[in-house]
Amino acid sequence: MTVQAVIDSLPGIQWITDPALVRQKSRDFFWYSPVLKRQLNGVTAEAVACPRDEAEVIAILSACVKHQVPLTPRGAGTGNYGQAMPLKGGIVLDLMGLDRVVWTKPGVVRAQAGVKLIDLDAHTRREVRGELRFHPSTKRTASIGGFIAGGSSGIGSCTYGKLREFGNILGLRVITMEAEPRVLELRGTDIDKANHAYGTNGIITEVEMPLAPAWDWVDVLAGFPDTISAARFAEALIASDGIAKKMAGVVAPGVAQTYFKMLQPYVPAGAACSLVMVAEPFLELLKPLLERFGGTELYRCETEKAETPLYEFTWNHTTLQALKVDRSLTYLQTLYPAPNHFALIEKMEKTFGDEVPIHLEFVRLGGVVSCFGLQLVRYTTEERLAEIIDIHEDAGCPVFNPHAFTLEEGGMKRIDSEQLDFKRVADPHGLLNPGKMLAWDDPDWTPDRKRSFYLYGQADAPEVEEVLE
Amino acid sequence: MTVQAVIDSLPGIQWITDPALVRQKSRDFFWYSPVLKRQLNGVTAEAVACPRDEAEVIAILSACVKHQVPLTPRGAGTGNYGQAMPLKGGIVLDLMGLDRVVWTKPGVVRAQAGVKLIDLDAHTRREVRGELRFHPSTKRTASIGGFIAGGSSGIGSCTYGKLREFGNILGLRVITMEAEPRVLELRGTDIDKANHAYGTNGIITEVEMPLAPAWDWVDVLAGFPDTISAARFAEALIASDGIAKKMAGVVAPGVAQTYFKMLQPYVPAGAACSLVMVAEPFLELLKPLLERFGGTELYRCETEKAETPLYEFTWNHTTLQALKVDRSLTYLQTLYPAPNHFALIEKMEKTFGDEVPIHLEFVRLGGVVSCFGLQLVRYTTEERLAEIIDIHEDAGCPVFNPHAFTLEEGGMKRIDSEQLDFKRVADPHGLLNPGKMLAWDDPDWTPDRKRSFYLYGQADAPEVEEVLE
């Protein structure tokens, strides 16, 4: 058996082979999506490799190429789309052992891929009074390498945009999947080759990231008469270049009241909510801004001192909080393109009503204040879900389908020739995270080919109820 | 004589009464404008008071009210519109003696009004690795109080917007002009009462300012085939939220070649130029961005190490550099409103050709990347200058007339009732910087009333050639 041959050839590496543990390390939060749950529930690797340094990573890659064993890299497994799930089995490469900060200077940090975001922020805050410009709502568990390989934006994107924006990643150290793996430093526009590629075309071992000032952040929850008022407030806050802020989320009336347990005591019936993070010196400016949009402050807490920080009620955590209360829910990821975003939000709210409760996150895209939707969806069937997606896209709201596990069908919506070309040189045998880059398996794929197809694995494994919390 | 009575009543105060020195301290850079030069050349105070602390300021204000003597506050006198020129004579209040930093914490500084911007930046950089978010091109001489009372934006506004944006000033300590002066702390929306009011409605003695990260800035001069290519590059840079930058100016072909002595060796004939400041870690991203717009790097220098920093070729310093070569030049201040800014720039460039060489500064206004023009103008007559202004405004480019010394006719273009109301309570006798707030002298003024009128002083004083450098 080839996986066993790899294990046998590398006795110095720490291996996990216990099937239950391996299965656990082969999964992420794909089950937010009933579609992915059906498709990916049976996915598991045969073994997990746990390298402690880059030399071990290189040895593992070399052995996998020699024995032609598929390898799927993984950070903390906090993705939502099966990004790090080994569709073709083989070996999972757990990179959390590469957990060293390499260096820090004012405004910039270089770290190994497995450093947890929360540890990295604590380190840079202490050393140079800096912090990551943005992080996903999974900051307390996710790793920096996993965020870059599998994520795209998050808390702080309201100021700095997405990871893809020029300057939000300064360098990536990438190991190629070859018999003699090469160590590459990607910088400048080359970063796009491996950024958000799910580890399909190289293993990120180190990242160099710019830092933002580490303000004392304060969580503020505000109530509004309706979704649009809350959205207009969030937009105005994000457009205020003078106010240091890190988050501006919005949920429709009913969402906080029903699903945000910790916040329920503060939220009056019928109120839409905005969830923001503002730097302490600018707090006094919130009141006039709230008043302009009919808003009222409901709750305030220093982010660092909160038992559960407010960011764990935003972005994909909104869905998680809702799932804790109602396991039948799922979600969407859309853009409401400016300048018609408010009209589109209202139209969708009217079209779907309580079937698709509105959840917005305001960000900057290419320097323009923009509005993402991470709406909740009361799930019935895959057909209806597809219909909801189509209605959004027909109305002019592109959907970054969170019910697809390939790069192209998710956020990308096109073949990324740069990433494909890089895979050709960095993973010529196609062993890295197989099945995630459609263009590799099916170069003729186009975005009008509907819905994901599943090339490998078994979809009929026994369903396991995920334990929340 | 009433001024003498004030002087006699305050023997502990340091006074300047030598007429030549008083005249010098009664002037600013108003002579950039041939219109203001004609109108204001004879303006002078009778004495200059130089307080060393707030108690002395209060004593001077109280005495001036008692003797009904006009008082005009002044920082370093680096304004361009006669902001701090005593139209009605009386006393000039030189606030440069209030030069203490009150306190500094990460992200925020509080300082007395007379602290020089360059000293304030050095202090906060040393203490908390912070610096002012933006500063005028006169950073090396101007004071923070003068910047707020008489300025509006500058180097750094490409990231943080104008002083008026919520959060760019956190607090102002203001002394009222009453028999018993009150000390007020203006915060939040109240800041608008005294921000950019030319000291007409209170004396700013302390300011509280948010700080930006103190990056190691690098000056980069780039050449382009034409003005619009340079402008598109500057806009793209400013829209890149991932790149830490502080400046993106543009000058048409010929401007750098003819007027920027220090830079002449680097600039090829016929090239338009962009002048930018980028933080060191992001320099490697400039090349691909330049290539996208046909640009070439011509010159690079660490801002701190430059003999003359690149920012002293931007904003109003562009005009100063040009005046050093050609004393017949003057300038405009316009907005090219998005999204038609490029079309408007091209139209104006075509309309005026070499009569109005294009000079642009890209900024953010209300969260939107925007384009100011500080064009050079080959001056002929006041009538033609007025015509040039009219043609711009008729084309949809509002002009913030730098050839007017009143608040309303300059940037404001309307009666600011908030500032007027505040003057009623803070300067009930109308003694502060008289003649600068039109609404006080002429409550019926409307923006369609053409061109400034001069209420006081003598316009026929002997002309003195200003010494440049």
From TrEMBL, chains A, B:
Keywords linked to the UniProt accession: FAD, Flavoprotein
Gene Ontology BP annotations: lactate catabolic process
Keyword Flavoprotein tagged: yes
Signal sequence, start to end: none
GO molecular function, a single term: D-lactate dehydrogenase (cytochrome) activity
Domain FAD-binding PCMH-type: 40-214
PROSITE patterns named in the record: FAD_PCMH
PANTHER family assigned: D-2-HYDROXYGLUTARATE DEHYDROGENASE (PTHR11748:SF119), D-LACTATE DEHYDROGENASE (PTHR11748)
Protein name: FAD/FMN-containing dehydrogenase
Originating organism: Falsiroseomonas stagni DSM 19981
